[in-house]
Amino acid sequence: MSISKYIIMPFVFVFIFLLYIPDGRTQEEPGEVFEWINPSGGINWTTGFISAEGVGIPPENSHGQAAVSAMACRAAVVVAQRNLLEIVKGVRVESETLVEDFMLKSDVIRTAVSGVIQGAVIKSRKIEDDGSCIVTLEIPVAGKIASHIYEDMLLSSRKFMLNETIAGRVSGIMRFFFPVAYAASKNESQAPCKKDINIIFKRLERLEKQIQVETFKTGRAFTEKDPTGIIIDARGINMVPSMSPKIRGWNSDVVYPDDKHKAEARKNGRLISLFMNDIILAQNHPRVGSRPLVIKGLKTYGNSFTEIVLGKESTNELVSVVKKGILDNAEVILVTD
Prior knowledge:
Shape: elongated
Distance between the termini: 44 Å
Strand content: 15-25%
Oligomer: single chain
Helix content: 40-55%
Number of helices: 10
Mean pLDDT: 79
Low-confidence stretches: 1-25, 160-165, 208-221
Largest sheet: 7 strands, mixed
Order of helices and strands: HEEEHEEHHEEHHHEEEHEHEEHE
């Protein structure tokens, strides 16, 4: 029995060793969140870079090893660029919205994506014994791509707010000049739009209050007690990464990002938030500085897995930080499973 054990054990060790041999593909660092969009690559939500692999095969009847390798690698780059495009299209912007949806409706975004892919950096190149070449390309999702997408989202948000304001003003004019018709509209059996009008009034009132209280100051001197960044602990609530995550308060209102933060992200071409899967490493990330404030997420919002709802106490903490203007110069990291 002991002899058979000694015979089997070496094979067990070899099997375990083979399981841990790196496969040569993109490997994320500890704490990083990498999402595979398709078998050729995906997006690193911690660094904000998209990577894709391409394989090139040399043409038949080619002569000279150098020429064969060059042609194979050139073909691999073309394949990797095509794979990059497919991966970019599949990157999540919001819960049910992908970059592809923005590309379909905007020539500017489509051109920006094409330009970034053409300028992709070769991260690795490997020539196999059979003459084939494997190339890995990398591009940032931050920069031009993020900037144009956030601009599109910002314009859509402002257009929506403008429509709500106009609807509210029209309702006010109707009430003043046409009281009979307005009174009729208050009768739910005669005017099915009563509920929508009430919603518009409430949103307009909330918007006006927000404009009054949320005055941001730039260039203020922070005290040593102010946080240098924000970490949202979203572990255990099925949060998934996206380009435009939302942090909602306990009353479901969006606290971060608002239009100001979206405008800053658009201007700087940076992602609204980065993602990590290790709370300790997140606390030591340079993006959130030496005194990050850690806030626990309560749950995801509705059917969306890209929006977080905070508890009442956590909401008050984040609202206070936003009102003080700290997030004008601080960054946000979301920690997921």
